[in-house]
Structures
1.
Amino acid sequence: MARNDRSDRDYDIALLGATGFTGGLIARYLAEHAPPTTRLALAGRNPARLESVAASLARPVGIVRVDAGDPAGLASLAGSTRVLVTTVGPYLDTGEPVVAACAAAGTDYLDLTGEPEFLDLMYLKHHATAVHSGARLVHACGFDSMPHDLGAQFTVDQLPEGVPLTVRAAVRVNGTISGGTAASALGIMARLRQGNAVHAVRTQVEPALTDRQVRSIPGRVHKDPDSSRWLLPMPTIDPLIVAASARALPRYGPDFTYCHQLAAGGPARTAATMAGVGVLFGLAHLPPARRALLRLRPAGSGPTEAQRAAAWFSVRFVGEGGGERVVTEVAGGDPGYTETSKMISEAALSLVHDELPPTSGQVTTAVALGRALRLRLQRAGIVFRVL
Ligand SMILES: NC(=O)c1ccc[n+]([C@@H]2O[C@H](COP(=O)([O-])OP(=O)(O)OC[C@H]3O[C@@H](n4cnc5c(N)ncnc54)[C@H](OP(=O)(O)O)[C@@H]3O)[C@@H](O)[C@H]2O)c1
């Protein structure tokens, strides 16, 4: 087991993007839940806004002025902390220098990306450096993709070892998105072709599995006989993350198949969801339409407290293998912000305080943090249960 031992650094956890909508929630969560000895810092480009966030917190925190486009400033920040959490997105636009600084400095890195192209690019550019320096680069530490990744692992843990396994996830969500999420989501839709090309390069470069097989399948549109809901393929970053965990962990068995779907509801709702997503994809490719959509959700804006209090998510997993079948659920409140800020904060605290498997390079939450993080999330109110 390993622990992040760079304890001679000034801070345990530095949060870049603390002045944003999600960053503000993470700052508050960390200030309220980190053990008193945990040394926290807020980082960003606007000192006055950073001071204002710091003044609203229940404990003193350090302040570091840095622009996410300044490699020297980022090198200094990465060298001063054990864990760097960043919410500066869209990550494809602004994220790479932060990953580069952490990989070089051996600093554990966490983000909230849902952008598959960013994940693949960072693997190609910085995985090898991070393996060498000992940095754990853990992407997608929010609703994308922690409930799916840890939920699939929880489901696998209920099934026999050493046999082919299939896990099918059905996702239900109800919530409102922030300006940062809208910008990232439209960016992903506009760059699908480029994203697929980068993924193809990664597939060629990444060492192939020789004695095991891992597959991610989209599944067909169909009515789920258990829930009577219509299920749709959900081509988010989540199946890529779950597949990466399955590739890295032999516990997922000799032949692992994962299917990730959205549980849309009845036929009318399903048709409306499909039509809505189709229209959004079309508009995302037209810059003026994209700009108009982003004006509806400007940077820094997000759901109100009342909207967050009414939001929820549930992911139901059906796992099968070795003649056994198990149904599990991961569930919680507002997926995008209340629970996301809890998830990434608990991941940061786990990297600092828990005994974890020895890993480095680009790793998933299941691989780097696994059961230690699941226990933390359960204690923090996120449900993992066998139904
Ligand atoms: N995957 C998930 O489940 C999930 C959930 C929530 C959010 N997210 C992602 O998290 C990201 C942030 O979303 P958000 O709604 O919180 O965005 P936001 O409110 O617009 O916040 C963005 C933050 O980035 C900072 N920033 C931007 N450019 C910078 C630069 N050059 N140097 C330093 N700081 C810079 C901003 O600082 P200023 O205050 O100085 O402008 C602000 O603090 C998005 O990519 C979103 O997709 C993902």
2.
Amino acid sequence: MNISKITEGVYYVGVNDRTTDRFEGLWSLPNGVSYNSYIVRGNTKTALIDTVEVGAVHNYFRAIFAEIGESEIDYLVVNHMEPDHSGGIPMILSHFPNLKIVGNKHTIAMIKGFYHINDDSRFMEVKDGDVLDLGGKSLKVVLTPMVHWPETMMTYLEESGVIFSGDAFGCFGALNGGVVDTEMNTDWYWDEMYRYYSNIVGKYGRFVQKALEKTSGLTLKYICPTHGPIWHENIAKVVDIYDRLSKYESEPGVTIIFGSMYGNTGEIAESIARQLAARGVKNIKIHNAAKADLSYMISDAFRYEGLIVGGPTYSMHLFPPVENFMIAMETREIKNKVFATFGSFTWASAAAKTLGEYLNKMKMEPVATLEMKHSASESTYTAVEQLAESVVNALKLK
Ligand SMILES: Cc1cc2nc3c(=O)[nH]c(=O)nc-3n(C[C@H](O)[C@H](O)[C@H](O)COP(=O)(O)O)c2cc1C
Ligand SMILES: [Fe+2]
Ligand SMILES: [Fe+2]
């Protein structure tokens, strides 16, 4: 029984990483992550699609040799150059001296820069729409720039309806035995997909939309991403999640992000939440920005329609963990939110102004703002009620 076979001629040779704490040095990985790589065998040629992170190369080679034995690999197709997929390139090149790297001009420039491989005879440059003939298996190049880097592309195995999609349609979470979605309970991967999309791909929504347009005409039987499960029976659901997230579409609910040193600003966050709940909002997520994991805050911010952010003034600045969150929102060009802000100060206000400046830069108008001096008083609680009322009135998804 060949347990790595996905469909005729396509084999999984990826590896799990349950050791790394933070993906890209930033994003927590409580459930690990997989680096997916694939072998495609035609009648005459064999191609490897992408490699893995350098620390995972040992197990990667074990998976490759279990699949190919003594036979050769003719091509390495590099869909994405981020080091979580390109780390294995130098060792693959030295193990297979006749192998050619297949990539577009940006890919090839990056390989030369990252890995100092300057022998042009090792490269085969491809353009959008080019087809790599493996003998009865044709790999068509679909350029999808900025999903997630400029060189990013997908490759489509025409005869089998298999798309090797790079980071698109990927998610956090290592694979726990099952590789194709038909072999597993996929329930817990959906949250990991939201988190992966919002953390990693979130900035590039309009490029994801372009890529979706480009792939919409293709028959898709299997989506083989670089991270997480291979999608077969959930293709429609996965494409829908990526489509909605890349259009910044939300679900009903409100995320409240706050910072607080001594609890006064925290009290506003709690009161807002209570007032929202009293007005029928059921999905409310509150994160203390100084303690919560930025990765989960970003994920909830993308997911829910309402976003309320507040923090105290700290040495003439917005409290740094809250500012850090706002930078993450600005970076990801977050849109289509019902936004409200609250700030506090004691002698010279800065928090509320800075929050306003971020919203300006993001071309978003808050539906309500609130500012508190010292601690909550009756007028603060009245303002909280008004803020909650304005937010609830503006929510379209109820
Ligand atoms: C280290 C520190 C720096 C602060 N810097 C300022 C400031 O520059 N301007 C100001 O008006 N208040 C400043 N404050 C006061 C807080 O912004 C204000 O007391 C706020 O209400 C505290 O809210 P909290 O209880 O949620 O921490 C500072 C407080 C601390 C502890
Ligand atoms: Fe990437
Ligand atoms: Fe990746």
